[in-house]
């Protein structure tokens, strides 16, 4: 058998050096975590996970291209060694360590206890490869390594020698497990599940980063006054709204700096009141004062908001004289560019770049709710790699009311756990604050929010939803009104097909007027250009008409004097109203709530949950008009009614039990609808032709690594030209005929072949 000290983990990478390096990196990654148990499990997993590679079976496979057999698999043997190492530990930590090692190449599937029961059966099987592996390993050398490195990290060590007999004795018996559960040492709590996931994710990330190999990037400081520098450089006229934004920012800063380092916080303020900069300014200043500064994770519900927010953050960094390299500012979602750039170099999306991106190796990360929550609620190896980035972090959850109602309380309970065990802060920012957690458990950073809502009277909401109206009738009525009164107008509908129909009708009856459409039928590239075009037309005083779906909501900086909104959940209605007289240019803007039908069927059906619509109708009651100062009480009434109607999905119980197979089925942030992806290339878009050619070549030549790297490097530009349409979800991405894409309306489904 090969001496353990001379074994290799990878070609040219000595096994003891690899394990020790991963352990050191893991300990450093969790430096800001206040929970010693999390660090203990993560570091021990780093020391044990690849120890099973010390057999001659694996060394022959690695060095001499030997056959890959069950005896070359190493995860189970490393997990067995971890049980010997942790004999004196509480059972829940032993289980966490065991499963972390056992599943370091796969996803979580069985419950924690079931994993151990199945493994115990293997050890009793004389034909199981584990027996051969054990006999083919230098146990004395492995023990010397584990004792030396374990002592270096302060791990409690076993008193017995490492041997086949002591390994079998280290397996907790069913009776011992039952007794431990009776003493409160069992695994099935949300707190212990969360701690396990952070430990597992921390060492997974560092193992993959070290094996790649990737640089161990030094953490970087961010000046606490970056936002103030940014605001000082902006040219803006003094106004009452500007003064109110500054008051809000000052109050948020004062309270956040005085608050404990971790916990749940909320910032509830009117739309357009500067919540993004107020939150970011407070977070950066507090971070600059901390010894072990955590990362800033900015979570948003929509990709369009991510692009906009990343742009603001890039401007903030550059105003402070900092280049927005990836180690300072990172954008991460399923269509993000996986090229990772630092001042020293660039790492492509062919392994290193994507690892640095997916493990959130940056000071400020802008991401989606999907990427954040699936790190914990999926049990998938590739998602868990970013769990440890939350240690000591500040997570800004923008527009949290967009989470499905059934997950509000489970997610709220989980955030409480992460705050207490990870030393993390969670800041919920919105104009329509949902009830994710009990009020007494959340620190309000703007306790006088009522005053700020009362002081702003930019918009009046007209409630005309009590009389449902057919879409065709509304189109005719609106065309007449806009002919008579040509003012800039925004109309927000629930369905892409309805937005297209209305836009076509208005274009026909308003010749010469700019009538534009905005929906996901447009490519992301064209949506960005459309928003910029509308901003330009509004600034020029043009009577532009924009017909949009809900992609316009939340954070899009547009301001219309006249807004119409089809019936939707109240938080969506008020977000749309936030695009009306947003900057207080007028004395008061008008927003009208409608209830549109097509052939007698309400347009919200199949788009929104019925409980939220019914809560909206009950909250509005028989009101005819509501001014902005009444919005806050209205929202509170609405969310109170929502909570009464919650059909709670206890996904947190599944997480606590380790039932990840069921959890993956149940935890769906976006309802999956069958769709077909289409690539769109305009006549004059030469770049699109090159992108499509690269994509096709890479798809046809799957084994050509150079082509795959080229495709990944171009993914951002490629997917900026992709539209999802109803269709077969299993069909491969196709190129849309040019006749099927209208530059104004987007993809025309009936012309697809």
Describe the structure.
The chain folds into four domains: 4-211, Hypothetical protein af1432, CATH 1.10.3210; 226-452, P-loop containing nucleotide triphosphate hydrolases (Rossmann fold, 3-Layer(aba) Sandwich), CATH 3.40.50.300; 457-608, P-loop containing nucleotide triphosphate hydrolases (Rossmann fold); 675-751, no CATH class. The protein contains 31 helices and 26 strands.
Distance between the termini: 63 Å
Strand proportion: 5-15%
Assign an overall shape: globular
Structural class: alpha/beta
Provide the CATH superfamily of the largest domain: P-loop containing nucleotide triphosphate hydrolases
Largest sheet: 7 strands, parallel
CATH class of the largest domain: Alpha Beta
Q: Let me know the number of strands.
A: 26
**CATH topology title of the largest domain:** Rossmann fold
Helical content stands at: 40-55%
Number of helices: 31
Q: What is the averaged pLDDT score?
A: 89
Helix-strand blueprint:
Layout: E1 8-10, E2 13-14, H1 15-29, H2 36-48, H3 56-64, H4 75-85, H5 91-102, H6 112-123, H7 129-135, H8 139-152, H9 164-169, H10 174-182, H11 190-211, H12 226-233, H13 240-258, E3 263-268, H14 275-288, E4 296-300, H15 303-319, E5 329-332, E6 340-341, E7 346-347, H16 352-358, E8 364-368, H17 369-377, H18 381-384, E9 394-398, H19 408-422, E10 425-430, E11 442-444, H20 449-455, E12 459-463, E13 469-470, H21 471-484, E14 489-492, H22 496-509, E15 515-518, H23 524-539, E16 545-548, E17 562-566, H24 570-577, E18 589-594, E19 596-598, E20 601-602, H25 610-620, E21 625-627, H26 631-645, H27 651-657, H28 660-666, E22 675-679, H29 686-700, H30 705-713, H31 715-719, E23 722-726, E24 734-735, E25 741-742, E26 746-747
Helix pairs in contact: 1-2, 1-11, 2-5, 2-11, 4-5, 5-6, 5-11, 11-19, 11-27, 12-15, 13-14, 21-22, 25-26, 27-28, 29-30
